[in-house]
Amino acid sequence: MLKKEAKTLFKNIMNINVKSIEEINTGFSNQNFIINDAYVLRILRENRDETLNILEEIENYKAINELKISEKLLYLDEQTGIKITKFIHQTHYYSSPLKVEEIINVAKTIKKLHKSKLKVTHEYNFKNKLETYKRKLPNQLLLNKEYEDNLIKEMEKACKNKELVMSHNDLVKGNILFSNTKTYFIDWEYGSLNYEYFDLASFISENNINEKEANIFLNEYYKSKLNDKIKNRISIFIKCLDILFYYWACYYYLLRKDNIYKEIANEKIKRIISSH
Fold it and tell me: Is the CA virtual torsion 167, 96, 233, 217 positive or negative?
């Protein structure tokens, strides 16, 4: 969508004149615009991830509002997915390498979310997402089924008797904002109940956190409870996420022919091969 169309859309929804508009180039699935240095307008791109549900996203924002760890939702249309939120000032996106205090603050914010006891009506369905992406792909892009099945069994075993917690499920660099005092997680379209290991693995894996940084991160989250058993569980989740997001990237490349998805798929397949 062009800036002119975005300005008209915002004016029609909010009845506020647009004095300034700037596109943010951080979202894979959306176009985002900062309006009047005060609002963020999100417009969904075509060929959106069919596993997503806008009603669930609305529920997520309502649930996490009390935690004050995200942007404030002002408008979200359940049909079009058009979203308007308050712009969070004096923040910056994740940039590599992360400072130690930033790693610690991410861990604290994830823990605050997980320990909040907040509940929504939907759970993260790993297998469903995996199969949704896979069934769109030609056979030559599919991975070794035995390897996949064994990893998923290991993941299910690691989660046995574990409680589901409110989770973000998409902790990529574009969804993490830092201020001098706080860390914010934005864009809750993938949020749901999930196992704690998913967010932890997501942050480590999707941001290419090195071993030293991962140890700082996990030690802050678990404190004295961190042990080899927990580290092994997170390692299993990281391998499963590599498979999931390999298929996600292949799925989107076929839909949009954008090379960024091809690059992600290539990065994931290298990691999958090296982990065998």
Answer: negative
Tell me, rounded to whole angstroms, the distance of Cα 37 from its chain centroid: 24
- What pLDDT is recorded for position 70? 97
d(CA 215, CA 229) in angstroms, rounded, equals 14
Burial of 269 (0-12, 13-18, 19+ CB in 10 A): middle
Both tokens of residue 224?
């004295």
Number of Cβ within 10 Å of residue 135's Cβ equals 9
Q: Do 91 and 178 contact (CB within 8 A), yes or no? A: yes
Q: What is the mean pLDDT of each run of 10 residues along the chain (276 residues)?
A: 89 97 80 96 87 96 97 96 96 87 96 98 96 94 95 95 96 92 94 98 94 97 96 97 96 90 95 87
- Percent helix, strand, coil in the chain, to 5, is 50, 15, 35
> Phi, psi (5° rounding) for residue 108?
-65, -40
Distance CA 104, CA 133 (A): 33
Gap between the Cα atoms of 255 and 257, Å rounded:
6
Diameter over CA atoms, the chain: 57
CA dihedral defined by 43, 48, 49, 54, rounded to 10 degrees? Answer: 50
Long-range (24+ apart) CB contacts under 8 A made by 9-15 are: 9/41, 9/43, 9/82, 10/35, 10/39, 10/41, 10/84, 13/75, 13/82, 13/84, 14/39, 14/74, 14/75, 14/84
Q: Is residue 205 a contact partner of residue 171, using CB atoms and an 8 Å limit?
A: no
User: Using alpha carbons only, how large is the chain's radius of gyration in Å?
Assistant: 19
Least Cα distance to 162 among 59, 56, 234, 239 occurs for 234
DSSP helix/strand/coil, 23: strand
